Backbone:
């Protein structure tokens, strides 16, 4: 059986559903083809099932939250920002609230409330949703899109690819959109895991798992060369490092890289050396571990650092040799962690890489290669920090595409 429709949207995640309901409310007939038995499976597990839908604050500041690609989102975020998203849900009976740190959640803390509303709004605007309909092929023939599913083939004037990234494949996001993009001649950059913890080679902090630090500076080295620096909260895990500081930085980290972490925020190696000399001289016969504890380091961490430096923790300050002091200062201000592995697709919350942005018009989300073709949400080479930035990008890009679709369909009618 085949069908002929104005707009087909591939993927019923937040980006696909939001684009569908926005376009349908402009009298465009829309068909959403969803691979899984139901839509929005990733949305349901977002924010541990509570859905951190966006972030509070000045929308311009959002642009800094998508690594090197934030500027691409300028038009979409300025067009439909965090306050617009909050208003959209508030006005429709799903109130959102801002946590003290700025994260925005539904008051109910239920991601299902967000999904239910999106589906309800789609139904209200007569969007047709076909679940259990994995799209297997796409083509552009004689000015129309041909979309083949396991069930049938449909044709449309316009096509939106909203298939998400390639992590948490059980939710349906398996990178199919990258293949579809290539079919239309689009470039797809390398992809990998973002928003993930790292495993560390010869990790010596397993038993300190659960200890966290605020606002540490992390410097990334590759082949001995400094690549990038980032500041954020860090958590020791059983096999490596996690916490927002690592998750947000993970888009840049590759196996084999070394992270050097300063465990004392705001104090560099030279300064630390000077301060330590001063504190030792002032501390009389105090044990070294007591002196180091004065730098706000947990006692178990101090003991481990001294162990790594081969220094007796009961040694008194004045007995510390210059050589050992330099080793300790280095460990505290640039503690090295060699990355053996990043979390794989089963655990990474986002995908870095995707459909190349240079071939997409950032003001409309329309392809620069095939007119009438759009890409929205995580299928794009966009990944945000933790804190609601990915969902905001999904909604904002979807909204922009729907606005352009309205203009295109009005042009056809006139
Ligand atoms: C555990 C976890 C927690 C997260 N928490 C948050 C959070 O709190 N806040 C936040 O901002 N972000 C969070 N994210 C990220 C966020 O969920 C995603 O960035 C967002 O869902 C992307 O939306 P999307 O619509 O682009 O893609 P997706 O949500 O991935 O949806 C894509 C849809 O397309 C369908 N599809 C794929 N291929 C096909 C095909 N061939 N045919 C038909 N359908 C297809 C899929 O089944 C899926 O339904 C989290 C991610 C994970 C994994």
Residues:
């Amino acid at each position: 059986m085949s069908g002929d429709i104005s707009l087909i949207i591939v993927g019923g995640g937040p980006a696909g559903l939001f684009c569908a309901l926005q376009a349908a409310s402009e009298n465009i007939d829309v068909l959403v083809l969803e691979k899984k038995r139901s839509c929005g499976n990733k949305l349901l597990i977002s924010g541990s099932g509570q859905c951190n839908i966006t972030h509070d604050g000045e929308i311009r500041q959002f642009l800094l939250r998508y690594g090197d690609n934030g500027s691409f989102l300028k038009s979409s975020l300025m067009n439909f920002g965090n306050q617009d998203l909050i208003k959209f849900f508030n006005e429709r009976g799903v109130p959102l609230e801002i946590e003290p740190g700025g994260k925005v959640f539904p008051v109910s803390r239920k991601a299902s409330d967000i999904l239910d509303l999106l589906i309800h709004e789609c139904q209200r605007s007569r969007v047709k949703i076909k679940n259990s309909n994995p799209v297997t092929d796409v083509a552009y023939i004689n000015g129309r899109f041909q979309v083949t599913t396991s069930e049938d083939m449909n044709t449309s004037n316009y096509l939106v690819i909203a298939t998400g990234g390639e992590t948490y494949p059980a939710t349906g996001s398996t990178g199919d959109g990258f293949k579809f993009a290539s079919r239309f001649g689009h470039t797809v950059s390398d992809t990998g895991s973002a928003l993930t913890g790292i495993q560390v080679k010869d990790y010596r902090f397993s038993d300190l798992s659960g200890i966290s630090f605020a606002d540490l500076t992390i410097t990334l080295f590759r082949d001995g060369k400094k690549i990038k620096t980032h500041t954020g909260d860090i958590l020791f895990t059983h096999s490596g490092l996690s916490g927002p500081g690592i998750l947000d930085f993970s888009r840049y980290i590759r196996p084999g890289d070394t992270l050097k972490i300063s465990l004392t925020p705001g104090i560099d190696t030279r300064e630390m050396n000077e301060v330590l000399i001063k504190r030792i001289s002032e501390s009389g016969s105090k044990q070294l571990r007591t002196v180091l504890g004065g730098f706000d380091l947990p006692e178990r961490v101090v003991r481990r650092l001294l162990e790594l430096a081969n220094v007796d923790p009961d040694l008194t300050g004045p007995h510390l040799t210059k050589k050992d002091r330099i080793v300790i200062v280095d460990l505290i201000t640039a503690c090295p962690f060699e990355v053996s592995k990043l979390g794989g697709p089963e655990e990474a919350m986002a995908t870095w890489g995707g459909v190349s942005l240079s071939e997409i018009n950032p003001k409309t989300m329309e392809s620069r290669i095939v007119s009438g073709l759009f890409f929205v949400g995580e299928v794009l080479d966009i990944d945000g920090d933790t804190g609601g930035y990915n969902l905001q990008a999904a909604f904002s890009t979807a909204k922009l595409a729907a606005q352009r679709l309205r203009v295109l369909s009005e042009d056809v009618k006139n």
Notes: The longest strand covers residues 225-236. The chain has two domains: 2-192+346-413, 197-342.
